[in-house]
From TrEMBL:
Coiled coil: 175-216
Originating organism: Meloidogyne javanica (Root-knot nematode worm)
Keywords for the protein's UniProt record, in alphabetical order: Coiled coil
Domain Laminin: 107-231
Name recorded for this polypeptide: Laminin domain-containing protein
Keyword Coiled coil assigned: yes
Amino acid sequence: MDALAASNVYELIINLLQNATMSTASARYTTDTAINLIDPKEDNSLFLLSNISATKSLELNNKVDLILQDLGVKEQSNRLWNNLDNLGNVVLAAQKNISLMRDVQQLLEDHHDRISTVFTAVDDAREGLDLIEETIIEFNEDVEGIKQRVNSIQHFTSSSIKESIKNLTENAKEVDLLDKDFSQLEEKTEEHSKQIKLLRKDLGVLKEKIDEAREKAAKIRIGVRSDVGSGCIREFLSPM
């Protein structure tokens, strides 16, 4: 190795040693500084600074609470939180009410459909009532016509009917007497038997006619009008 090369090597080694010495010194300083920051006995230690900061923070927090208490802010804040809780309950109740209202709305729609059906039925019933009213009016008109016809035959009274029945009864009695007379004549004479038989035959036919008339008269209803104006009529069968 020549002298120049050796000189360069020595110079490099010296530089490396100097750099190592400087790095070691820097590391030691950093280490000492870190130890001082951690050591609670040192005035500038992180522990002491942290304690001081925590103490000041606690003091500030207490002062803030006192100030807020003096201003009533804390009470208002608590009231606000309570109001928020109440508001939340109101919102929940409103949501339930909305759901209930939807159910009620659906129910009302169903009832509306039913009511529409009822209205339709009522309209149909009204039409039926109108028809019934028209029928009643026609019936009243018919009744009035009947009343007029009844009034037109007032002259045909019950007394005339009774008189006719009485006459028929008397005629029947007379026929019976004649029959007896003819029977007596038949016994007295036989000469007139043929004539008597014919007469008796005629009398039999006459009796049948009278009986038929009496049967028809017995079925006649005799009406007695209590009050002509009121239309009150009492009826009874003939006593025949």
